[in-house]
Amino acid sequence: MVNVDASLADELNTFYPHFEAAANHASGTTSMHAERAREVNTFTILEHDVRRAFKRVNTRKAAGPDGITGRVLKACADQLAPVFTEIFNLSLEQSVVPSCFKQSTIVPVPKKPQPACLNDYRPVALTSVVMKCFERLVRDFITASLPDTLDPLQVAYRQNRSTEDAIAHLLHTTIHLDQRNGNYTKMLFVDYSSAINTIIPSTLTSKLEVLELLPLCQWISNFLTDRPQAVRVGKHTSSTLTLSTGAPQGCVLSPLLYSLYTYDCVATSNFTTIIKFVDDTVVVGLIFNNDEMAYLQEVKNLERWCQENNLPLNVSKTKELIVDLSTKQERSYQPLNIHGTPVERVDSFRYLGVHITQDLSWSCHTNTLVKKARQRLYHLRRLRDFKLPSQVLKTFYTCTFESVLTGSITSWFGNSTMQDRRPPQEGGAFS
Q: Which pLDDT tens digit goes with each residue over 250-299?
């Protein structure tokens, strides 16, 4: 087992950067960004913001490769804040991120109980806790600076927006389709082979310039390039590689940067919609009079966009769902192919935690919620048997029961049937 762990660490460290070869970094773009960025004032981080970020650190999180723990930052926030404020501002001014801040240790997390190949391990990066605080301050600046013209259907990292908005828009688009004349809806739930790991820094900086985020173009480019990385499996750590493609999963900025990277992936037809929540993407096509041309063209446009932006599609995990409420008779639908591979058609799909079915019923979703609640009920009873205070039991209920039962409830509860809402002992889900 020792030899397996040692070899696995080296194999994964070679496997994870396989997108590096596919990425073609534009060298001329960087100098242009650097020259234009000098004309724009960088934003300044204030000492009290750094102090507040340090005091909010979760001390239970593991330390990064630099060994600085969250406990130290939180306990010594008043003493360390002035020093790191100067370091952070100097980094922004020179558009250079210290190498020790960029270093990451990758801990592979199995996607399946018994991984069969290297792709069955998800790379999660352990990075500097100090850098995470720095990233949060940069993230807050970016989100506050985003233009109002940004794609409204990318709901991640938008003020007063959440997964419920994405689900509600998907359902609203489908339900309000006039299906009396044989019209129906096709949904394509897109899966990427690797999303965040494929970001090309030069392409991202070009898009940040369009979004008028020039003060951070060079800094983000430097943040994403020349990142030292090693993989740790058990007690074994691989040799160090230097990467310049993608953003490590586990970095605070990575999901936001990916959202900005895909901001220009938008629908080109009035009969199609592309809804995004970070890398959870769904293409919705409204089919009138059996004419699927607009939908098929949108899928082709998405294929082309993915190729141009180094985001390979995972066709085997991409699923198509058809909502056709116009007739009870079976209808033959045109099959969908991506890169010559047929896309599997399903009766239901779990999108952002909610089960969407072909008839837009909610029995599947509510039954799943009841099953999860019953699994947690055992633990609640055990805690009660230990005579824990009622306040502790209420907190446990809020965290483990209520969060599950009320997830995206505004999107589905109003359309659920009385049978779905009945208590479990009566055969339904909720009262």
A: 899 999 999 999 999 999 999 999 999 989 999 999 999 889 999 999 99
Cβ neighbour number for residue 78 with a 10 Å cutoff = 10
Among the three residues 340, 357, 374, which one is the final residue of a domain in this structure?
357
Contact 143, 259 (CB under 8 A): no
Residue 340's DSSP bridge partners are: none
Last residue of a domain, one of 320, 335, 357: 357
State the number of CA atoms in the 13 A half-sphere of 146 facing the CB: 23
Tokens 């359309």 -> residue: 415
- Counting the structural domains of the chain, the total is 3
Q: Which of 263, 236, 256 is nearest to 144 (CA)?
A: 256
The boundaries of the domain holding residue 231 are 2-147+200-249
Q: What is the mean pLDDT of residues 382-403?
A: 90
247/260 Cα distance (integer angstroms): 13
The more confidently predicted of residues 20 and 335 is 335
Residues 350 and 7: their CA atoms lie apart, in Å, by 36
Say how far residue 130 (Cα) sits from the centre of its chain.
22
User: Residue written as tokens 């999107």?
Assistant: 411
Reported pTM? 0.86
**For residue 157, is it within any domain?**
no
Token pair 């990064």 is at which residue? 64
Between the alpha carbon of residue 172 and those of residues 135, 164, 177, 406, 412, the distances in Å are 35, 12, 9, 19, 11
Q: Is pLDDT above 70 for 180?
A: no
- Please indicate, yes or no, if residue 299 is contained in any of the structural domains: yes
Do the domain assignments include residue 152? Answer: no
Residue with tokens 């589905």: 412
- Helices (DSSP H) in 280-360: which residue ranges? 293-308
For residue 399, the Cα-to-chain-centroid distance in whole angstroms is 22
Give the pLDDT of residue 11.
84
* Nearest alpha carbon to residue 306 among 25, 22, 30, 15: 22
pLDDT at residue 15 in the model: 79
Query: Contact at 8 Å (CB) between 40 and 215?
Result: yes
Burial per residue of 87-105, b for 16 or more beta-carbon CB atoms within 10 angstroms, e otherwise? ebbebbeebebeeebbbbb
CB 190 within 8 A of CB 305: no
Are residues 418 and 314 both part of a single domain? no
Residue 154, in any domain of the structure: no
d(C-alpha 406, C-alpha 212), whole Å? 38
* 303 and 188 in a common domain: yes
